[in-house]
């Protein structure tokens, strides 16, 4: 992490879908380099709409979105793609090639990266994501969890400085979710900033540094995962279910005034310390 | 179990056409009328295949070699026409919008009845009952696509309820829903099970959500039953679940850490609170 350099600057972002109601009604935020930044909110709160502004898939109706120093209204999506990797919720929306190896080469090749360099990147990304064995396979012959990891890898080979993950763990079982959590950690360790749109509060509790809660197109709260997930009134008002361990730790008598536990280990320690 | 099972599977094995590896292998499973059973497992464990065997879609519409014995509501789903089985077994999938074909909520619910050849006169009453059961009364003229995710899934449930099945099978019904939508759907399923005595089989990967709903858990792994039991006992087998790549509810893990030898553990926050109070 290099001293709070801003990777994303959003000012009074407003967005309405054609003929529709305002999906975003004035959102402002800053994201510092190296942060794992969570965006949460119920379906329809505007979180995917916000995420799609980060790589220019959507352009502000009004307001400003500046990502890695580039105003998204002044740069084409393919230009922004040099800096911003976007992983869709459904891997089927972004896998095209006949082999995983080919899939992972498409992005950097489109960016004009040299062949040798592409090979190096593929080797490094597949080592991190433990995908080396599936390189010769057809993406569609892979089981769903593997396809998800391939779709993340295909974006990482472009070496984005900002990685946007839309619901990375939705529909995935525990084993895959755990792997995705590890991948997020290791990608951040390499200096990449990560924005994660998710319903998975356990994922955010485990990896995120900062969380914003969107509600009806506005930021309802902005804070640490512990502060956010411990705020019962906020959780109820924005219709979010905190992790069971956080709920239980808050429900145990005498702890309502303090932030709750975020993990099983924390809560076990907490209970042991009072009994 | 005093009643004869409503679902009885004996050594059921399913191999999809063109595949060599069985999708289900030697499944022995009896479900009593009125039971609420959760089927959990990793993606690809066979959860969907199991559900599709119950209403005969496998092997009648999805070609597969099925061996062993299956009896559902006293009939053999491998040979009883799917259309007939639909009167006994209603299935709801994870993506309700893929199933919708009609312009309004009421027509969507009527669609299944028309396919069954129900006389038109009796339809409005049945549609009203089904929509009321899922809390969608008043939205009859709305487009299915204008509903929230939770409402869409409730509409999908109404569309099968209207056929008055004895068994409701749900295949990952909440995987595209937020927590509020999930709670809406499971509240309705709980009511159908407890108040109407409907037999429910729900395949889920969200163990925490399903734990609060079901009486019994069946864990599938690579097409076989790897573990099963009453919910609070099955989910207490944390090490075995972990080896299968599954994670029990957070409060169950906490309770297990505090009392590793307990064969039965809480699965919801309220249960865990009572459990902790009883121990202190």
Structural class of chain A: alpha/beta
Average pLDDT of chain B, to the nearest integer?
92
Figure out the total of helices of chain A. 11
Could you give the count of β-strands of chain B? 9
Walkthrough of the structure:
The complex is a heterodimer of chains A (about 280) and B (about 280). By secondary structure, chain A is an alpha/beta fold. Chain A has eleven helices and ten strands. Chain A has helices at about 45-50, 75-80, 100-110, 115-130, 145-155, 175-190, 200-205, 225-230, 230-235, 245-250, 265-275; strands at about 5-15, 20-30, 35-40, 60-65, 70, 85, 160-165, 195, 210-215, 220-225. Chain A has a six-stranded mixed β-sheet. Chain A has a four-stranded antiparallel β-sheet with strand order 2-1-4-5, with no helix packed on it. In chain A, helix 6 links the parallel strand 7 (about 160-165) and strand 8 (about 195). In chain A, helix 3 (about 100-110) packs parallel to helix 5 (about 145-155). The longest helix of chain A is centred in the middle third of the chain and has 16 residues, at about 175-190. The radius of gyration of chain A is 19 Å and the shape is globular. Chain A starts with 5 loop residues before the first strand and ends with a helix. With about 280 residues, chain B is an alpha/beta fold. Chain B has helices spanning about 45-55, 55-60, 80-85, 95-100, 105-115, 125-135, 150-160, 180-195, 205-210, 230-235, 240-245, 250-260, 270-280, and strands spanning about 5-15, 25-30, 35-40, 65-70, 90, 165-170, 200-205, 215-220, 225-230. Chain B has a six-stranded mixed β-sheet, sandwiched between helices. A three-stranded antiparallel β-sheet of chain B has the order 2-1-4. In chain B, helix 5 crosses helix 6 (about 125-135) and helix 6 (about 125-135) crosses helix 7 (about 150-160). The mean pLDDT of chain B is about 90.
């Amino acid at each position: 992490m290099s001293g709070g350099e801003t990777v994303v600057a959003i000012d009074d972002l407003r967005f309405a879908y054609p003929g529709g109601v305002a999906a975003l009604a004035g959102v402002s935020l800053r994201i510092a380099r190296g942060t794992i930044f969570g965006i949460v909110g119920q379906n329809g709160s505007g979180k995917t709409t916000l995420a799609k502004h980060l790589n220019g898939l959507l352009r502000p109706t009004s307001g400003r979105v500046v990502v890695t120093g580039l105003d998204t209204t002044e740069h084409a999506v393919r230009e922004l793609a040099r800096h911003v990797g976007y992983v869709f919720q459904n891997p089927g929306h972004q896998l095209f090639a006949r082999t995983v190896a080919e899939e992972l080469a498409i992005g950097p090749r489109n960016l004009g990266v040299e062949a040798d360099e592409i090979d190096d990147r593929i080797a490094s990304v597949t080592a991190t994501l433990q995908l080396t064995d599936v390189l010769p396979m057809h993406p569609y012959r892979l089981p769903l969890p593997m396809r998800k990891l391939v779709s993340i890898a295909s974006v990482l080979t472009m070496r984005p400085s900002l990685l946007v993950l839309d619901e990375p763990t939705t529909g995935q079982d525990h084993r895959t979710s755990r792997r995705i959590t590890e991948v997020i950690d290791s990608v951040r360790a390499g200096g990449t900033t990560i924005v994660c749109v998710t319903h998975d509060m356990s994922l955010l509790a485990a990896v995120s540094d900062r969380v914003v809660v969107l509600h009806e197109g506005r930021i309802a709260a902005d804070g640490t995962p512990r502060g956010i997930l411990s705020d019962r009134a906020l959780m109820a008002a924005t219709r979010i279910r905190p992790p069971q361990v956080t709920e239980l730790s808050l429900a145990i008598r005498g702890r309502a005034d303090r932030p709750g536990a975020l993990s099983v280990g924390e809560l076990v320690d907490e209970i042991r310390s009072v009994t | 179990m005093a009643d004869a099972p409503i679902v009885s599977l004996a050594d059921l094995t399913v191999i999809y056409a063109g595949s060599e590896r069985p999708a289900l292998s030697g499944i022995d499973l009896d479900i009593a009328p009125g039971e609420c059973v959760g089927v959990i497992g990793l993606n690809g464990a066979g959860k969907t295949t199991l559900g599709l065997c119950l209403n005969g879609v496998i092997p009648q519409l999805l070609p597969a070699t099925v061996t062993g014995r299956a009896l559902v509501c006293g009939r053999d789903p491998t040979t009883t026409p799917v259309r007939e089985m639909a009167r006994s077994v209603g299935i709801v999938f994870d993506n309700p919008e893929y199933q919708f074909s009609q312009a309004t909520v009421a027509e969507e619910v009527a669609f299944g009845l028309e396919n069954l050849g129900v006389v038109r006169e009796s339809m409005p009453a049945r549609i009203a009952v089904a929509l009321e059961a899922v809390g969608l009364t008043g939205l009859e003229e709305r487009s299915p696509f204008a509903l929230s995710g939770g409402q869409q899934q409730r509409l999908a449930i109404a569309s099968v309820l209207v056929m008055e099945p004895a068994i409701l099978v749900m295949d990952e019904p909440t995987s595209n829903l937020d927590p509020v939508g999930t709670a809406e759907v499971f509240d309705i399923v709980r009511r159908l099970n407890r108040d109407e005595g409907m037999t429910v089989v729900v395949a889920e990967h969200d163990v925490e959500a399903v734990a609060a709903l079901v009486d019994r858990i069946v864990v599938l792994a690579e097409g076989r039953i790897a573990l099963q039991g009453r919910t609070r006992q099955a989910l207490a087998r944390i090490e075995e679940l972990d080896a299968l790549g599954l994670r029990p509810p957070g409060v169950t893990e906490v309770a297990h850490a505090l009392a590793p030898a307990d064969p039965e553990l809480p699965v919801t926050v309220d249960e865990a609170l009572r459990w902790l109070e009883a121990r202190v």
